[in-house]
Recover the amino acids of this structure.
């Protein structure tokens, strides 16, 4: 449940921030008539992502090889998502504003379609990644726990997105993306171990003793060590956040006082 919570929180924040920034931009530029296009875009994207996740999770008893492929694909998506967010975190607002400006400058029907497609693709991208990551956990997890973790994580993301529209620059998104990047790296390691474990079970890895490596990675993939690795997905990012906060406070307290110059 913790893994699902963090995935939906992380991906939900990016998706909902896109929506929040787009809404702020259209209202600030007097284009409120395009707001329904934004709501339609994110609604269709989320509905499609939920349907995709349900299909992937309920395909049936997947073979170990298929589970390994899904876990490996999810690990690649995690790394690419983390790289993308660390690269885009600081300039996300400017990029979205520029694309929306180009889209909303078209004629009425074309503008509606352009804004709708922009939000659909931007939010849908996050939704597809989320659905794939969560589906990789479905084989070894209770679907009720996955659903609860996803609901809680997405709700937290909604609160953060609302706070962004209300308080704007007071939210340190740079720190947020760095903290959650720690989680995503750990999660990608967990997924890679699980993928290797399933490939070994399917005896599909050439040049090694698959049975030996399947048994050797059992504790890491599905045993006690794997459970502690799951706990670290929450503990390590929180510890990093606390460390960053303490470091920032120490730097602020040790900085020399500013001297006002009088003219």
């Amino acid at each position: 449940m913790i893994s699902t919570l963090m995935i939906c929180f992380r991906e939900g924040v990016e998706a909902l921030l896109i929506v929040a920034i787009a809404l702020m931009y259209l209202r600030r530029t007097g284009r409120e008539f395009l707001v329904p296009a934004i709501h339609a875009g994110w609604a269709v994207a989320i509905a499609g992502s939920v349907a995709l996740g349900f299909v992937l999770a309920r395909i049936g008893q997947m073979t170990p090889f298929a589970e390994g492929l899904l876990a490996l694909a999810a690990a690649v998506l995690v790394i690419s998502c983390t790289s993308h967010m660390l690269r885009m975190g600081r300039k996300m607002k400017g990029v979205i504003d520029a694309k929306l400006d180009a889209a909303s400058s078209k004629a009425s029907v074309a503008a509606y379609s352009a804004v709708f497609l922009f939000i659909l693709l931007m939010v849908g991208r996050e939704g597809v990644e989320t659905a794939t990551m969560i589906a990789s956990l479905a084989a070894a997890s209770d679907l009720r726990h996955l659903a609860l973790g996803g609901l809680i994580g997405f709700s937290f993301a909604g609160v953060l997105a609302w706070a962004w529209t209300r308080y704007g620059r007071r939210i340190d998104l740079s720190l947020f993306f760095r903290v959650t990047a720690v989680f995503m790296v750990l999660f990608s390691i967990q997924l890679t171990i699980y993928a290797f474990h399933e490939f070994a079970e399917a005896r599909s890895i050439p040049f090694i003793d698959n049975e030996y490596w399947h048994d050797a990675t059992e504790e890491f993939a599905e045993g006690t060590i794997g459970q502690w690795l799951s706990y670290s997905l929450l503990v390590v990012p929180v510890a990093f956040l606390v460390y960053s906060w303490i470091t920032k406070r120490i730097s602020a307290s040790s900085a020399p006082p500013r001297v006002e110059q009088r003219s």
About this structure: The CA atoms of residues 141 and 194 lie 13 Å apart.
